[in-house]
Structure formats: structure tokens, C-alpha cells
Amino acid sequence: MKFSLLSLALKNLKRKSFRTAVLITSIGLLVSILVFGTSFLLTISSSIKRSTDRLGADLLVVPVGARDFAEEVLLETKAKNFYMDKSIIEKVGKIEGIEKLTYQTYLTTIYGLCCDIPAVKVVAFNQETDFIIKPWLERAIGRKLGKGEVIIGAEAAENFELLDVDRSTLFGMKFNMAGVLEKTGTGLDNALFVSDENIGEIIERGKSGLRPDQISLIFTKVKKGLDPYAVGRSVEGEILEVDVIARSDMGKKIISTLKDINGIFLLTIVLACLLSTFLAWTIFSAIVNERLREVGIMRAIGAKGSHIVKMFIIEVFTIGLIGSLSGVMFGNYLSLTLSRVFGLLRDVAGTLTLMERVEVSLLGLAVGTGICIIGALSSIIRIKRLEPLMALKEG
Amino acid sequence: MAQIELLDVNKTYAVGNNVVKAVDGVTLEIEKGEFISIVGHSGSGKTTLLSIIGGILSPSTGRVVVDNTDIYALDEDRLSEYRALKIGCIFQFSSLLPVLTAKENLLLPTVFRPEKGNGFEKKAVEHLALVGLEDKIDAHPSQLSGGQQRRVAIARAFMNDPDIIIADEPTGDLDEETEAEVMELFKGINRQRGITFILVTHSSELAKDATRRLRMTRGRIQEL
Ligand SMILES: Nc1ncnc2c1ncn2[C@@H]1O[C@H](COP(=O)(O)OP(=O)(O)OP(=O)(O)O)[C@@H](O)[C@H]1O
Ligand SMILES: [Mg+2]
């Protein structure tokens, strides 16, 4: 290699190889926290947004007191049952401002009952009025579900791969598998869907615990131009047996908890960055100061201030870049593996897109190298201003 | 017009409440190709004066004009170019970069040239041979004796073909024989290429070889 400032800078790094390694590791750890933390924040926020956007309804009418259950079922992968009487459908339909509605009944299979299909959420939906499942159903099979047919959520399908679905039964009833739904990014990915025409027979078999004329929730669309909140309030006012969740309220409780976690994470990240900048500042000014003499020599034999800056920036940038690159890799690894370990991350279905990952990684790179350069800059600027002979003598 | 003109140059250092006058009203003209020796007691201001001529220490008052240019009126970058191209500096103290080999230390000043050139590698090897270090090309300073380090520094001063060499006790760590060789080398280069030499020395023996001899006493200069 032709001798240049670059080779000088690299030799300087090599001379203090232990210190260089420690610096690289520290920057790497910082960046991995940053990448992991940001991925975590993004995963959660985007998954919440996706879940609420895709529900396709303005208002959710649920039994009084079941608000939290409903959110858990719809946004997370929990299987919980809650019921109200079918007569409520009619009452809701009469409320001023409701444009259309549909309803669903949730059941849970009981472990061990039906040929070892594990406990799973089964959604019986009304095909005449449905507008929630319909778009997904059309994409999957292009027709309505027949009686005795089941369609499976994307994630549930993975769990069923090992089972002989054709010979399994649900609540003692034989179903044919019509297909698998595309991923919705909601809790519904973990459910099986059947038409509510089957409910009569399920009840007859007596293996579900469901009683006639029970439904779990009603999805409604509000007439254009009306405020969903106002309509929701009048539903709650007129029908005492129900609670109403407006779409923008969906997941509010989870969101606010997650927002707090996000806040704490963000604060930690900011503090870690600040701390690292201070550390980088101390360490790099020490590094620069111990090289005062060398800088004096270089200036005396003709180096411009910019040569000195360039040499130090190459050194600092190399440390920052290698550290940040390893941090980006480690952070992404953490966020990919830990998302399978922590229940919270598993429950909020959904992962980052490639683009989001690239953006987070670039952010990590920029912050990691930025901190090093900012930390070193003041010392570099001070030292390049010194008169060569003074630098020589101070060193 | 002389190559180097010092006009009433003063340099004072503030040490606490005291003021040290290291260079006191020096006015001096040096022609191109002169071989000048400066002697003087320790602390008389020799290094300070040499540094001012070499563009590495600005005077408190007075002007330094080299080839019709007031060098301390130049901006930082032009002054750096002056140091890189016009001046070859041999310091009183060790001045090699420890991470670099002998050859790389010689190549360092060529990196600072405003225009890039070629053939520096070959030139560096030749220069090291001139000072008798052809077998130490890839040695690091820590692997060299004090005198060998000094010779590397001497060879480095010539890498950018300077017009002026300022040398602060360049033969300080050398034995008499090597000292004589270095002086012969200097005188040869001075004669052949017309490079101006300004040499600080404690040895009146060496000072004799100069075409012009100066003495510094408490910051003031006088011809001998
Ligand atoms: N940075 C400084 N701060 C204060 N005083 C200084 C500084 N540098 C030099 N001096 C003083 O200036 C005077 C001249 O110093 P200089 O180094 O030029 O002497 P010198 O003739 O080269 O001595 P020597 O032969 O020992 O190298 C001395 O009295 C010294 O104490
Ligand atoms: Mg001196």
C-alpha cells in the first residue's frame, strides 16, 4: 500500500490495539442497545396501528365489562370468551347513525377434547352481514364459506401443519379445511373461522359450553360524516348491557402501557448516547493530547491543520464505523431472537419490514459514528490551532 | 534582495508575571546558498530564532521575509506549504513518529505536499543510504539508536527538496566520525544544490566550517 495519511491513522490504531478494541466494543454495545430499542419501539407501534386499521369497523359493541377482553382478543393472541344476547343486534341497528353492522361469536376449543387440537380461538361469523372477514376471505378462496368448512388464520395454520386436519374435529364436529387466510397482523391470525350457520350443530353436540342466542361482539360502521364517538355514546346510553370501543380507542390501554415502556426505553437510549458522548469526549481528548508532540512534528514538517484533522477523523471514524457495524448486527440479532423470547413481543403480532430494519440500522450507524466524531472534534480543533513549536514542547 | 530577511524580530514569553525575552531585536539578512552557523549559550534563544525562521513559531513583533514573502502574514495553509516545501527542519530533540518505520518517516513530509508526486519511495531509500542506514529502512525508531534516529531525521529534512535547511544541533548524538560525515554531506549539498543552511551548534569546531558565523547572547545576535 502506498504510504498516506490513511496508513498512518491505521498504524496509530494498531499501536494501541487493546484500547481500540475496547472503544470499538463500547460503541458496538451502545449501538446495539439503540438498534434493539428502536426496533422494539417500531415493532410495537406499527403492529398496534396495523391491528386497528385492519379491523375495518368504526365501533365495536361488546358486553358490558368486556372491553379489555375484546382488545386482547383482537390485538393480541389471547383466547378469551365473553358473550351477550343476540337481541342486542337489533337494538344497536336501531340507533341513529349506524350504517351497517355484523356480529361474531367467539369460542375456545378445549384442550384434549377434539383429537388433540390445542386450545384455539374459533370465530363464528355471520356471512350475510360480514364486512370484517370478507376481504380476507375473498383473497384466500374467492367465495363464501360453506357449512362444515373452516378457514384458518395465518399463524394458526403454522401450528396445524403437524396435524391431520382432515381427520380432526372441532367441538365434536367434522370440518373441511377451505384454506388459509393471509396474515392480518392482528390477533385474528391465531384463530379458525367458521360460518355461524354451524353454531346450531355445535350447541347440539354440547362440547362448547355455548348456549343458544349468544354472540360475542358487534362490529358497526358509522354513517359518513358522523362522529363515531358521538354515535358510540348514544349506543352506550341507550343499551345498558354494552360497552362501545371506537376504532381510535382500540388498544388504548395497551398503547398507553407500551407508550410508557417506549418512553422509558427512549430515555434510556438518550441517556446512554449522552453518556457515551461524554466518555468519547474524555477518551478522545486524552488520545489527542498524548499525541500533541507528534502533531507538533507533523505540523513543523508541513502538515496543514486539515491533514491533522483528517488523520484523527480517519482514526475516530474507523473506531465508530466498525463499532457501529458490529452494534447494528448484534442489535438486529437481539431484536430478532428476543422477539421470540419475550411474551410481550410475541403477543403483539408483526415484525419490522426490511425497509424499517435498514432505516434503524442506518440510524445506528449514524449515531455510533456521530458520537465518536462529536466527542473527538473539540480536541482535534484545539490541537490543530496550536503553534507547531508549542505543540511539540507541550507534548 | 536577500533570500531571508529578519526585520527587528522579537519574541517574548510570559512566564507567570515575568516576561522572558528569548529573541531581542534581531535584524539579519541571509543570502541564498549561505552556510551559517549559530553558537551561543544554552537559553540564549537559538532554537527560538531558528523556529521563527522555519515558520513554526510566530514572532511577537517584527517581520520575517523569505523570497519576498512576509511569511507570518500568510494564512495558516500557505504557511504550512512554506514549511512543507521551502524548509527542511532538523530538530534538537527526537522528532520521528514512533509508529512509522524509517522509510515511512521519510515519506511523511511528501504526504503534505500540495501537489502529489511520484518516486518518493525510491528517493526515501536513497536518502537513507546517504546517511548510512540502508539496512534500517523498515526499522521503527524504537529499534534505532539515538544517533541513527537523528540520521533518519536528517534524511527526512531533504525529502521535499527544500531551499533552506534549519538544523538545531543536528549532530548532537553523533560520534565524531559520523558527525564529520554528516557535515561533509551538508557542505556537499550546500555547494552542489545551493541550499541555504542555518546550523545551530555548540561546537566551535563545526562552526568553523560555515561561510558565516553568528553568536547569540541573551536573544541578541552578532557576527563573528
Ligand atoms: N515556551 C516557553 N515558555 C517560556 N519560556 C521559554 C519557552 N521556550 C523558551 N523559553 C525561554 O526562552 C529562552 C530561549 O530559549 P531557546 O530554547 O531558544 O534557547 P536555546 O538557545 O535554544 O538553548 P539550548 O542551547 O539549551 O537549546 C530561554 O530562556 C527559555 O527559558
Ligand atoms: Mg535550543
Which ranges of chain A are low-confidence, i.e. pLDDT below 50, for 5 or more consecutive residues? none
Share of helix of chain A, binned = 55-70%
Summarize the helix and strand pattern of chain B as letters. EEEHEEHEHHHEHEHEE
Please give the count of helices of chain B. 7
Number of domains of chain B: 1
- Overall geometry of chain A comes to elongated
Could you tell me the radius of gyration of chain B in angstroms? 17 Å
CATH class of chain B, named Alpha Beta
List keywords for this structure.
heterodimer, A: 395 residues, alpha+beta, 8-stranded mixed beta sheet, two-stranded antiparallel sheet, 12 strands, 57% helix, B: 224 residues, alpha/beta, Rossmann fold, 6-stranded mixed beta sheet, 4-stranded antiparallel beta sheet, 7 helices, 10 strands, 33% helix, binds adenosine-5'-triphosphate, binds magnesium ion
Textual characterization of the structure:
In chain A, the strands form three sheets. An eight-stranded mixed sheet of chain A has the order 8-5-9-4-3-11-1-12. A two-stranded antiparallel sheet of chain A has the order 2-10. In chain A, strands 6-7 form a two-stranded antiparallel ribbon. The radius of gyration of chain A is 31 Å and the shape is elongated. Chain A has two domains: 2-49 and 254-394, no CATH class; 65-240, no CATH class. The longest helix of chain A has 39 residues, at 252-290. With 395 residues, chain A is α+β, with helices and mostly antiparallel strands. Chain A has helices spanning 5-15, 17-54, 67-75, 87-94, 134-140, 154-160, 199-205, 228-238, 252-290, 292-300, 305-341, 343-347, 354-385, 388-394, and strands at 59-63, 84-85, 98-108, 121-125, 149-152, 169-170, 173-174, 176-180, 191-195, 214-215, 217-222, 242-246. Chain A contains 14 helices and twelve strands. By secondary structure, chain B is an alpha/beta fold. Chain B has a single domain (32-41, 75-223), classed as P-loop containing nucleotide triphosphate hydrolases (Rossmann fold, 3-Layer(aba) Sandwich). In chain B, 33% of the residues lie in helices and 28% in strands. Chain B is built from seven helices and ten strands. In chain B, α3 (102-111) packs across α4 (120-130) and α4 (120-130) packs across α5. Chain B is globular and about 50 Å long. The A-B interface holds A 3-5, 7-8, 11-12, 14-15, 294, 297-307, 387-390, 392 and B 51, 54, 56-58, 76-77, 80-81, 83-85, 87, 89, 91, 93, 95-100, 104, 107-109, 111-113, 121, 156, 160. Magnesium ion is lined by residues 46-47, 92, 168 of chain B.
